[in-house]
Amino acid sequence: MITALPIPQPPRWTARFRAISALLTCDLMLHLLYTVLARVVNKRCRVRAESHAERALHLITLGLHEDKLEYEAGNRNLSFVLALQSELTDSLL
Fold first, then answer.
1. HEC string of 12-46?
2. 62: number of Cβ within 10 Å
């Protein structure tokens, strides 16, 4: 039987790079992620690429990983998920 290896977890940010996690909840970054994914889904859009979607999904995964680490540390805020929900509701209105 062939089994797959688990997905490797990214390491925690060092103190020098901790500000990068704040970029994941920035309004502009969330708007860019929404725009990239909306263009990938839209078949009539002429500006779309699979590599853009892969990078957007990677950034979303990093944001979810940061929230998971914060949740396990005792912070129940989930800042990335809340910011993403806020961006989605603002974009859909």
1. CCCHHHCHHHHHCCCHHHHHHHHHHHHHHHCCCCC
2. 17
Distance between CA 63 and CA 79 in Å, rounded?
9
pLDDT in tens, the chain (93 residues): 778 888 788 888 888 888 888 888 899 999 999 989 888 888 787 777 888 899 999 999 999 998 998 899 898 888 899 898 888 887 766
Q: How far apart are CA 21 and CA 5, in angstroms?
A: 27
Q: Find the length of the chain.
A: 93
Alpha-carbon distance 7 to 61, whole Å?
Answer: 12
Please give the Cα distance from 89 to 31 (Å, whole number): 11
pTM for the model stands at 0.81
**Nearest-angstrom CA–CA distance, 43 and 19:** 36
